[in-house]
Write the structure tokens for this entry.
Amino acid sequence: MNRTMLTYLANISIRRKLMLLIMLTCGLVLMATTCIFVIKEANDIISTQRKDLASLADILSKNVASSVTFDDPQSALDTMSSLTVKTDIIAAYILRSDATIFSRYIAANAKTKDVPFEQLDQNSPPADFQKVLKQIQLSSHQFLQLSERFSMVAPIQLDGQTIGTIVLFADLHELKSRLLSTLISAILVLSLAAAAAYLLSVRLQTIISLPILNLVDTMRSVSETKDFSLRADTPGSDEIGQLYDSFNEMLQEIEERNLVLRQRQEHLQELAHFDTLTRLPNRVLFHDRLQQAMNLALRSNQLIAVIFIDLDRFKDINDTLGHRTGDLLLQQVADRMELVLRDCDTVARLGGDEFTIFVQDIRSQKNACKVAQKLLDLFEIPYCLDGQQIFVTCSIGITIFPDDGETIDTLLMNADIAMYHAKADGKNAFRLFNPEMNQQASERVALQTDLRKALDLNQLQLMYQPKFDAQTGVMIGVEALIRWQHPERGMIPPSRFIPLAEESGAIQAITEWVLSTACKQAKIWHESVNNAVSVAVNLSAYSLKRNKAPVMVQEALEETGLPPHLLELELTESMLIENDQHAEETLHDLKKLGISIAIDDFGTGYSSLSYLHRFPIDALKIDRSFVWNMNRSDSDLAIVVAIIAMAHSLKLTVVAEGVETEAQLASLKKNGCEIIQGYLLGKPTTAENIASNLQKKKSR
Ligand code: C2E
Ligand code: CA
Ligand code: CA
């Protein structure tokens, strides 16, 4: 088989290969069978012919023996003329014993040129006849060599003596026609068998090729649709069936692997785009969606509100109740937020307690405010965390695209600024961004930068406001109040820079400085004037939270040598409430140092009385707003009276701050307030002025 044949075979379909195989096998078998059949048939015919000729020669030799003996050729010819009925005999010769022709019979239709004796000359010597006779005898033994004729030589005997020879020539015509008809019927049978084999092979090859083609079809649709859940219907349990099973198993495996892969991919996708704690979109996804929404909004002239939400005092909750509770809170906040928003709005967690939302297609700022109010309302119901009910609020900043910014970064930055304003304005509120805020924000940043240097540059100073015994009018202490002398902006009040210092962390260094300066000053007064005047220092929430206060206070006392009872710390109510457990420990640590503790701005915060007895407190400072209004508003007076009564029942000293009028002083005295502080009796002043006041009093 040459190369092209091999490639042809390799490339034709299995169907054709099978067909070819079946047809080839059948063809070969049929051909071999036919050949054997035809050869056997030919042999049979030849041997019959041979027998016929032999018996004919035998009969003739007996009949012509006397004619030869009596040398009567005519009677021999008469005898031979009976051969006319035998159409296949073309010639018969009777030869004498010397091999000369005694008598000849030639059939009417015979072609004499075919007969060997007729080729000899009439006068040929007997030797030539002998030679031809020998040849005839030789060839008569080779019947199978199908030449043009048959010949039979038989001796003519009389009384055991050979007196001549009879030679018969027979035509092969009949033999050939019989052989031909045998061949034709064999070919016919062969064709029929081939046709049957073809039909059978068509049927058989479908049994084998159809399942293979089906499998190929299934494979093709799997590869086209990538649907690995497809299966091929197993046709049986033969090798093809096993092929199906293996193929299906392979698909099953791929499907399972794909599933695992898909799950991993989804997980990765989720990690990349969703916040793991709240399952909300993260910064990346938020950016993505907002950018799309912005593109759309630009084309359709729509507005988008970008809302920035920051939980108020979240750090305190985290610090005091633990991170687990903090996480729970964030999850619940996220759940609630999703409830109030439409499907097309996106709420995301940027990190920590910061959430962002964008609301598409708002028609005006008003709509954005409505959404913000809805969000604030979410916080009116307390959160239930680990069985505890906790009230949380949030502050919200809003920017509008494209009015307040054209990029996501600007929008978020501006929303953050607006949120900061909501916080600065008392928290639990929302603010719409306006460009002025930006300026304030940069001013804030500038102030914060300056504040970091203020301590080193000696720009901070302390003023002292005296506190007086309400009954005797004697100055019994002072409150240290910080001032920042800014080189360009002039005097900056603490209400402006203390929140900045708390935000940036600079408060720690400032508090340390205030404590040590105030203690140093009080020690000087104590020694020089020998007067027991206490100094009160305002403590920032930051110091209490980080549990830094006890160490700071101890260091200040040790460093200056001030007797601890001359130092008082002023804390606000909210600081205690927010810190609760932690604050209680810190306060006890502070108390152990021997100092006094006062609650500042009392009445403005939670005013929950239940907590007071838990803390080691010495004094309450009634907030100046109540003092200012106590002679104008009955309810404010009632509050002041109630605070004093309650403080006394808890054995606490009561201080009234912000006392500006004689009427206020009189009312306070009447209701039993022990200590008075306010512009009426003394404004915050320098340490020197306090010293000279003390001196004066002493010399008086
Ligand atoms: P505060 O502790 O309630 O201090 C009293 C504030 O009321 C002081 O304002 C004082 O000047 C003012 N004041 C006193 N008497 C009167 C009065 O009769 N009428 C009026 N209108 N005001 C009066 P200041 O000094 O501006 O301090 C504001 C706040 O800043 C303080 O409120 C305190 O919370 C905080 N602060 C002051 N110094 C420090 C400090 O060293 N550290 C910390 N952490 N906070 C401080
Ligand atoms: Ca104070
Ligand atoms: Ca106060």
